[in-house]
Amino acid sequence: MNNVLRQLDLNLLVTLDALLVEHNVTRAAARLNLAQPTVSVQLARLRDFFDDPLLLPGPRGMRPTARADALREPLRQALAVLAQAVAPVGAFEPAQSSQTWRVAAFDYGEYTALLPALAGLHQRAPATRLAVVQAAPTRVAKKAEQGDIDLAFLTNAEAPPDLRRRPLFTETYVLVGRAGHPSLISPPTLEQFCALEHVVVSPEGGGFEGETDKALAARGVARRVVLSVPHFLFLNAVLANTDLVAMVPSRLVSGNMALQVTVPPVAIPGFEMLMLWPERVHRDPAHQWLREHIANSINRERDSVLSRSAIPAGRP
C-alpha cells in the first residue's frame, strides 16, 4: 500500500472526492477554489493512475463509472480520518476527558506534590485516572521517552538533564522527634545532637549516611545512626512511637501534632523539588493542563499554610 501511495499525489484524492460529489468539473473547481483547467489536468492524472475513465460525459453532467462508485465511500471516510488526524489540536476539556496519566514519584513526591492535587483533579476531571509508579532516578528519562511515564517528581540533585523541568518548591531540613521528646524541648547543642539516636531514610535500602553526616564530618564530629528505613511514611511512625530522632524535610512534618520539630545545630543544604516531563508531551494540551493543575495546587497549599501561620493568637 505504501508503494501505491508514493506513486500518487494525495491532493488528487481531494479533487476526486469533489468530482464525485459535483459530477461537474466547473463546480468541482469552484468547490476546491481552483481553476477549471487545473481540475481537468488532475482528472486526467487520476484516470491514468486508476486506469479508468472515472467520470464519463452524460446528458446532465458527468456520471461515475463502476470503479468511481466503488471508490466514493471509502475515499470519503479516508479523507475524513486524515483531516481529523492533521487538524489542529483543540483545547483540553478536563470534564470530558478519560485520560490516564502515569506519574513516577517516591513517597516524598507523592505526599508533597501529588497529594495537594488529588482532590481538585477528581473534581475537575472526574473520569481521568492517575497511576503512581516508582522508578529509579537513573531510569526516569528512558521510561519517559518510551511513554511508560508522563511526569516525574525528583530533587534537583536526582533529575536527569535531558527532561524538561519546572521547579515546584525549595525544601529545608528540620530536626524531628516525638511530641514531648525531652531532648527537643529546646534546640540541642551540637554535642547533644550527636549523642541522640538517629534514623535515616535510604530509598535504595540499607544506607546509614546522608547529607547530615557529610556536614558533621566537615566539622570533625559524627552522630549515632541506629536505624535505616526506605520510606518516609514508616519514618514518621517510628519517630512518633520511639525516642529516635531524624533530620526530615519540613513539609513532611508540617502540622503533625504527634511530632516535635526544632532547629538542628548544624546547617544542612536544602533541595529543590522538580516536576519533569519528556519533550514528546511538552505541547500536549492534556499534559499542559495536568502540569498547571499540580503546580497551582502546590501553590494554593503553600499560601494556605502561610495564611494560617499569620493568624494572630487570641487574646488571653
Automatic annotation (TrEMBL):
Pfam families: HTH_1, LysR_substrate. Residues 8-65 form the HTH lysR-type domain. This is LysR family transcriptional regulator. Belongs to the LysR transcriptional regulatory family. Gene3D superfamilies: Periplasmic binding protein-like II (3.40.190.10), Winged helix-like DNA-binding domain superfamily/Winged helix DNA-binding domain (1.10.10.10). Keywords: DNA-binding, Transcription, Transcription regulation. It comes from Corticimicrobacter populi. InterPro entries: LysR-type_TF (IPR050389), LysR_HTH_N (IPR000847), LysR_subst-bd (IPR005119), WH-like_DNA-bd_sf (IPR036388), WH_DNA-bd_sf (IPR036390). The lineage of its organism: Bacteria, Pseudomonadati, Pseudomonadota, Betaproteobacteria, Burkholderiales. GO terms for molecular function: DNA binding; DNA-binding transcription factor activity.
